[in-house]
Amino acid sequence: MQNAISAVTRRLVILIPYGWLLFFFLIPFLIVLRISMSTTAVAMPPYTPVFDWTGGWESIRASLSQLSLDNYTWLAGDPLYFNAYISSLLIALVSTALTLLVAYPMAYGMAKAPTTIRPTLVMLVILPFWTSFLIRVYAWIGILKPEGLFNQFLLSLGLISEPLIILNTNWAIYIGIVYCYLPFMVLPLYSALEKMDHSLTEAALDLGCTPIQAFWRVTFPLSLPGVIAGCLLVFIPAVGEFVIPDLLGGSETLMIGRTLWNEFNGNRDWPVSSAVAVVLLLLLVIPIMLFQNAQARAERAEREGR
Amino acid sequence: MKSLGIFRRSFAPWADPNAKPFISFRNVTKRFGDFTAVDNLSLDIFTREFFALLGGSGCGKSTLLRMLAGFEQPTSGEITLDGQSLAGIPPYRRPVNMMFQSYALFPHMTVEKNIAFGLKQDGMPKTEIAERVAQMLKLVKLESFAGRKPHQLSGGQRQRVALARSLAKRPKVLLLDEPLGALDKKLREETQFELMDLQYELGLTFVVVTHDQEEAMTMSDRIAVMSQGRVIQVATPAEIYEAPNSRFVAEFIGDVNMMEGRVALENGHSVLKTEDGVSVPLPEPLAEGREVALAVRPEKLKVSRAAPPEGANLYAVRGEIWDIAYFGDMTVFHVKLPSGKIVKASSLNATRGVEDPFGYDEQIWVSFEPQAGVVLKG
């Protein structure tokens, strides 16, 4: 009896995350997928076919037969979309690399700080989240614009004679992404570095490593899980980022989030924008799934092997 | 002259006034803020010696080891190795290697890579590294585990990998920080002898930190008993046990009965008058009335029903059996003396059965030979 109850509760506990994924990921995704295979129409909703659930099996089958992959061929045919994807991936890649460069020393410093002040440091890293994301991005406009704080500071120091053009370039986007996503990189790195046994570094020194060699041969390889987690947490949302390139980037900056927004709001072309979203999702999910699969397989092989 | 302990030591460079110490601490002090971890300490360790630093937690023994390894710098004083000052030399340039208490094996590397780590760092050619690693694996009997990662090994195997890794570079001195602390009792005893054999075969100098007195007694040539950053006594295990120089050492190592009393003069000789009215002759004349203690180890006390014969040169007191602790190999009797003091007397259970054994509350005699005790003035 007791066992039966605990078996049921165990199932229920598993049911909650699965139910969540079903209702808030899988079903919306299927709706988007279905819209991406329709055609635009001047109607409400702005696409055909619209499934008529009252018409019975026959009418649904008729609607289903109207679905096509035309939008995907269209995406493949127009270099605009291809370029937008590539440019999004590149911008996300550069931003992730820059975020890692800024975050690693921060996380390292935090992990080496006295235990008493570490909670305060973690708090400070999360603190920016207490103000609105939009306000923080707008604030960067004030800092980066030609007559902004940053240029005035450099001019007053005499380092430059005329203002640098940063706003509305890719540099502004990099700065914006690094700034906004920094906590997502710092926290996993910190948790990986913090639990590392200090005697490992000492052992490396004892065996003949200089402090820098000890870092590259021991500390860094052991922090790789944190590096990977942080990079994924920054890279994935950065690819689809819309607000930062829209506010800080130039008009010629091509990013897929913006293309999607234009298709959806400007052209009111729901099917094409849905197709853009589906391709973006597949572009991100498939490589990450392959990567995680390979990692799990390597781990299993190591556990079973020899 | 009677030797202390029951075996002879042929290796004793510390007794030779011309021998040059290999490691030398000269007035070394280490402070962390207000806390003095090591207090004006001087100590000599000789080459090929198995030297133990023994003491409770916080006595400064680990700090001493870490200063030798180069992880801490002395606040004042000097440490020399083979005549060279170690001041300012970072850990990666010292000819010493350390085996860490936590083993500190690199979790992302196989056993083989762990052992090869220091050799690779020194730029040793690949073929030589492979040779040395194979040799080390054989030494610690882990040939078939070369490809495993540390988390796939048992505690004892990890300990061996750590040992192999610290020996791979053939250091002049091996530092061992509680090397057997994480092993269970049986394994610890086995490993003690393996470590001793290894040290003898390789002809290295070992400095081991431990809080386990049995471990220190078994393995080392000499022991430094430490307390509050100072060395209280440096001597061979037998000297430490049989001739402790202070109450602290006598009480720290093994069990001891402290017979307290005053010095009195009898027939022109100094004797110790204990609280229970026994007079024990003292080996040296001491001022009358001075309070001293006679430290007698439990195994040197004998319990008997009959009073010891007159003129047997034994010192005997009557007492009552208060408690009996049976350990299998021996039995310890806690005997209450007339003064209320409880002494421990242990007797070896050399035979399987005893006719008419002692019982609780029985009146018995406790006796000991005059030279069984050590006079402690402090």
Summarize the structure in short:
Chain A: One of its GO terms (cellular component) is plasma membrane. The complex is a heterodimer of chains A (306) and B (378). Chain A has 306 residues and is mostly helical.
Number of helices of chain B: 8
> What structural category do the secondary elements of chain A indicate?
mainly alpha
Q: What is the tally of beta strands of chain B?
A: 20
**Overall average residue pLDDT of chain A:** 90
Number of strands of chain A: 2
What percent of the residues of chain B sit in helical stretches (DSSP H or I)? 10-25%
Total helices of chain A: the number is: 13
Q: State the low-pLDDT regions of chain B, or none.
A: none
Say which CATH homologous superfamily of the largest domain in chain B is assigned.
P-loop containing nucleotide triphosphate hydrolases
- Fill in the CATH topology of chain A: MetI-like fold
List the helices and strands of chain B in order. Answer: EEEHEEEHHHEHEHEEHHEEEEEEEEEE
CATH architecture of the largest domain in chain B: 3-Layer(aba) Sandwich
Rg of chain A to the nearest angstrom?
Answer: 25 Å
Which of globular, elongated, flat, extended, rod-shaped describes the shape of chain A? globular
Oligomer: heterodimer
| Whole-number count of domains of chain A | 1
Distance between the termini of chain A: 42 Å
What is the domain tally of chain B?
2
Q: Give the biggest beta sheet of chain A.
A: 2 strands, antiparallel
Structural classification of chain B: alpha+beta
Distance between the termini of chain B: 26 Å
GO cellular component, one term (chain A): plasma membrane
Domain ABC transmembrane type-1 (chain A): 85-291
Membrane topology (chain A): Multi-pass membrane protein
Pfam families (chain A): BPD_transp_1
